[in-house]
Design a protein that fits this description.
homodimer; 415 residues; alpha/beta; Aldehyde Dehydrogenase, Chain A, domain 1; Aldehyde Dehydrogenase, Chain A, domain 2; 2 domains; 7-stranded parallel β-sheet; 16 strands
């Protein structure tokens, strides 16, 4: 079996060195990594071709093949991504606050790296360089376990980054690769408490569920978004149409897309046919409850499963509600705590929705599609947390840090 | 088997109501709880007597019986503790920062409750009222599972608090009690991911270990402190003696007490005999390595286990080191990431220690005993986190919160 323990030991040791590097040094090394990607482009594309050939042989869909595919341009984009990380402010070392306590101790809370971060992810190879560079910038060692579809691509990408570090003679083991994509090794990784300070799974609902049931390492849950648009009785028609269309169809395969439309009964008759007409441009299929289906003759009757389903496709569940209270109760029961939006002109409805809906991001009169680290202005994103501990919502560099108290005394003892 | 699911469902529902209460309302309810403790003092003491009788029959030590014992004064102190929590600022609702992004969205990060907090704890009944009031103040429902030694005490304390809420007709299920102290039910609680947002274990190393191996609920690890005092070659003799004495003997049974003394070889011959003389006042037993034992004739030879042991007693491991590097390496290998101190007059030694030692609290020239929420000025403490995720070091009210993004738009869609 693959030796995760050795990887863990190496990463832990490397993390101690990495935590002491200056920002300038870390940026120099990141620049070496970016250059190495460009220098080794041919080898990277050759390895990616192996993955693509396997994908074709295994009958993987065209959409998935496209997610997997690297081109010269996409490798350039990876290098550009690393250079963007170089530009970001380094949070490590910042003393968030410092005060003198009643004993005369000067107590400061300082940002420090988390230590060793494990990432289990699926399909897209650019996650490899994104995650590696964000972890490196924040002084964290990382252990990467990608999906089997992108095995050869991920392997060479990590090797290229590692070689850049080895050539520089610094923190060779800061970026580690799990060269085994079996479930057994993934499960072992989820329980590697001795070496991993945190585990971040990035993938679909089944991966997240497996991590939830298996992991004893502290986890930051990410990604699944069963998101709702609630159209209040006081909504503007055109805004309701535009936002629903954007949230559902602008990029349906991502976690901040909307999956269910809730609409107040007072406006259902007027709004639903018009929304249907707009979404028909993308051939959206509606799964509607008995009240909504009256206005959506082409819809399929919704079953209970629809309320919990993250379609990630041109499909939308639709339900007519009698009140904002019913909408909020439905959302809090079925959502995955990701992104939720209300469309309304009513002040009290907007405040109520913001207060009572339990989710990482709650919107008034805007599309759920904005939940994103770049859009929020963090300059980067390692994922979107849907849990309440440590980080919630889009995670940038700040969310990859921990803190420690540094305390300056002059001989104090406790009485 | 005890029905944890029902408890979880009730707590989850109650948490939704509790999250919406104003600070004034929460404070009124806390005051009712404080009064209820005073009104029901006789019943509380009678239940505690049952626990004490059982403890005596089971041959529990006098020290442990004292931890378990309630008196009129101790119940007064519990009520006083709740009134102190009333005085603390309520973090819930605070918008930490708010900004306009490039799309014109106004994005605010707001503090919200975690939801439902599970606490598994041992022996002292005052943890029941402390934890319940801190969770309540921060709008969190709590499920309390205390140790079997304090079963009747904990049960009546929770009942008294619950009755205060029931009488007021608000959030009756915000404080829940697990009336089953079996390991099976505790293990089930550690995996109650559907209902618990976080689990905080408070207890000894074996409990923490069990939680680490079993829990799939997000955990905040607390408590174990294998802490070190490192006496540098440039330390002042008197300060070194006072701080070592304080850290070891002022209250040896708590997690911020020191367990191992590391001393630079240049000052071992002069300092160790004098420290030994001082600590002899408390009959401290030394477990010394071969270099230290030369200066500590009454010491026992240390074994490898000593470096990892949290004695919580008048015992101290002693090791002579050749350099600050050796001291730091020893600490980072064996510590539990709790509290560490260096005694030195040397500027560079102090900076190096602060930078390289991996722990929640790192001290220069002060006793480790200061790691405490009250001492740090937080006004309260639910425990001391020794993990890196979410909270590190003493946890006050702030650490019992999560965040959510509230976003004000005016029709924005993503291009």
């Amino acid at each position: 079996m693959f030796d995760l323990i050795q990887l863990g030991q190496q990463a832990k040791k490397s993390a101690q060195q990495l935590a002491l590097l200056s920002t300038t040094r870390k940026n120099e090394l990141l620049e070496l990594m970016a250059r190495a990607l460009l220098t080794n482009k041919d080898d990277i594309l050759a390895a990616n071709q192996k993955d693509l050939n396997n994908a074709r042989q295994n009958g993987i869909s065209e959409v998935m093949q496209d997610r997997l595919r690297l081109t010269g341009q996409r490798v350039d984009a990876m290098a550009y991504g690393i250079r963007q990380v170089i530009q970001l402010a380094d949070p490590i070392g910042e003393v968030e606050k410092m005060w003198k306590n009643t004993d005369g101790l000067l107590i400061g809370r300082q940002k420090v790296p988390l230590g060793v971060i494990g990432i289990i992810y699926e399909s897209r190879p650019n996650v490899t360089t994104d995650a590696a560079s964000l972890c490196f910038k924040t002084g964290n060692a990382v252990i990467l376990r990608g999906g089997k579809e992108a095995f050869y691509s991920n392997q060479i990408l990590v090797r290229v980054l590692q070689n850049a570090l080895t050539t520089a003679g610094v923190c060779e083991n800061a970026i580690q690769f799990v060269a085994d994509t079996s479930h057994d090794v993934a499960n072992q990784m989820m329980r590697l408490t001795e070496y991993l300070d945190v585990l971040i799974p990035r993938g679909g609902a089944s991966l997240i569920q497996r991590v939830k049931e298996t992991a004893t390492v502290p986890v930051i849950e990410t990604g699944t978004g069963n998101n709702h648009i609630y159209i209040d009785k006081d909504a503007q028609l055109e805004m309701a149409i535009n936002i629903t269309d954007n949230a559902k169809t602008q990029r349906p395969s991502v976690c901040n897309a909307a999956e269910t439309l809730l609409i107040h009964e007072d406006v259902a008759a007027e709004f639903l046919p018009k929304i249907a007409t707009k979404l028909a441009e993308h051939k959206v299929e509606f799964h509607a409850d008995e009240k909504a289906i009256v206005y959506l003759p082409d819809a399929i009757a919704a079953t209970k499963e629809d309320w919990s389903t993250e379609y990630l496709d041109y499909i939308m569940a639709v339900k007519v509600v009698a009140s904002i209270e019913e909408a909020i109760a439905h959302i809090n029961r079925y959502n995955t705590k990701h992104s939720e939006a209300i469309i309304t002109d009513n002040y009290f409805a907007s405040q109520k929705f913001l207060k009572e809906v339990d989710a990482a991001a709650v919107y008034v009169n805007a599309s759920t599609r904005f939940t994103d680290g770049f859009v929020f202005g963090f300059g980067a994103e390692i994922g979107i947390s849907t849990q309440k501990l440590h980080a919630r919502g889009p995670m940038g560099l700040e969310e990859l840090t921990s803190t420690k108290y540094i305390i300056y005394g002059d001989g104090q003892i406790r009485e």
